[in-house]
Write a structure and sequence with these properties.
Strand order of the largest sheet: 1-2
Number of helices: 13
Largest sheet: 2 strands, antiparallel
Number of domains: 1
CATH topology: MetI-like fold
CATH architecture: Orthogonal Bundle
Helix content: over 70%
Length: 302
């Protein structure tokens, strides 16, 4: 009897341990590549850390004070927010429209799905260099804008302070278009067909169905796309580094580019402080977006 009780207790302990054993690889990966770097960044942010010697004197919040008095930091923060304001609505709306179009039962629609998805699987280095050529003074875009009368002479949008950030944002939107389209497409294919049939009987037009049925019922997908866009927009680096390098005159220097420049100048402590600020801003922005869209979801269920 005693042996049976001990065996039962052992089995119960093993049963409780099983989920943690399955989670262990994920915990180790997250701990190694996420938690540890964040803790290390926090450690460096309160030190006057010297990367070459590997030592640093404790300075408390002095690095944050220096960061918040740096005009280049505020310029980078403003550029990051402006970049998000450009990219977020485009990433929410354009892929949704594409998803609705490729969700139709049309001949050859699979080919269009593949074509729209191609930019996402194209390496950013290749994509950014391609757009850099298109934006060049002799490129197609420059020639097209002259024909429209927007510019009097061929102009490279990437070297103009007023247009460089928008030009880079277009590259980002183009790159993620297919990926976000797939998310919306999955949401569309899970919607009940009966709702649309009832709307057609009531005489609703295609646009009315899109506005009154499709958009409200895709709120969960919109939430996911919004959060992914905010996170990606906050840490945008490749397209800016390749296309503009943060120029002209800091017009496309975002927080990640600012952090990168600080690391390259061996100012590790300031870079770590800026990285923590970026992390906090990304979390706040994501939580705010989740709160706004969850309210829409609650209204939809009601």
């Amino acid at each position: 009897m005693a042996k049976r009780l001990i065996s039962n207790r052992t089995n119960k302990k093993m049963f409780k341990m099983t989920p943690w054993l399955f989670l262990l690889p994920s915990i180790l990966i997250l701990g190694t590549f996420l938690i540890y770097p964040i803790l290390q960044a926090f450690h460096w942010s309160v030190l006057d850390y010297k990367l070459i010697s590997g030592t640093g004197e404790f300075v408390g919040l002095e690095n944050f004070k220096e960061l918040f008095t740096d005009k280049a930091f505020w310029n980078a923060l403003l550029n990051t927010l402006l970049f998000l304001l450009i990219v977020l609505p485009l990433n929410i709306f354009l892929p949704m429209v594409l998803a609705v179009l490729v969700n139709q039962k049309l001949r050859g629609v699979t080919t269009f799905r593949v074509l729209y998805y191609l930019p996402f699987v194209t390496p950013m280095v290749v994509g950014a260099l391609m757009w850099k050529m298109l934006y060049s003074q002799n490129g197609m875009i420059s020639d097209f804008l002259v024909k429209l009368g927007i510019f009097d002479s061929p102009t490279n949008l990437l070297v103009q302070q007023g247009t460089a950030l928008v030009a880079v944002a277009v590259i980002t939107v183009w790159k993620g278009l297919g990926y976000y389209m797939i998310i919306y497409l999955a949401g569309l294919q899970s919607l009940p067909k009966g709702v649309y049939e009832s709307a057609e009987i009531d005489g609703a037009s295609t646009f009315q169905q899109f506005r009154k049925i499709t958009v409200p019922m895709l709120v969960p997908s919109i939430t996911l796309v919004s959060i992914l866009t905010i996170i990606a927009g906050m840490k945008v680096f490749d397209e800016i580094a390749i296309a503009t390098g943060g120029g002209p005159a800091g017009a496309t220097t975002t927080l990640v580019i600012y952090i990168y420049n600080k690391f390259m100048s061996l100012d590790v402590s300031i870079a770590s402080a800026a990285g923590l600020v970026l992390l906090i801003l990304a979390i706040i922005a994501s939580l705010l977006q989740m709160k706004l869209t969850s309210k829409r979801e609650d209204d939809l269920r009601a």
